[in-house]
Design brief:
The chain has about 90 residues and is mainly α. The chain contains four helices and no strands.
């Protein structure tokens, strides 16, 4: 469980949580408006790095090699599918 140590940390966590949820919802809206449903659904796989990386940068969370590898492979996989399309 994540516990904020000071009031400033709690404010930062609330701001990141609210802002992150809104940013993810807005990105989802834009995705569905601009892309096909197939490509939009594939881009959902890119959301975990979008959450994990700010956590590592702003909250100094440790990602570790396994998590970095998993995030990189997921991002690469989603990118390949969207760029090349679904193989038939």
């Amino acid at each position: 469980m994540l516990r904020a140590r000071a009031a400033s940390d709690r404010r930062l966590l609330v701001t990141m949580g609210a802002g992150g949820l809104r940013a993810a919802a807005r990105a989802r809206e834009l995705r569905h408006a601009v892309l096909t449903a197939t490509n939009a659904s594939l881009l959902i796989g890119v959301e975990p790095p979008g959450i994990a990386l700010p956590g590592a940068l702003v909250l100094n969370e440790r990602l570790g090699r396994g998590r970095i590898l998993a995030l990189a492979l997921g991002t690469i996989g989603a990118t390949v599918l969207v760029v090349d399309g679904i193989p038939s």
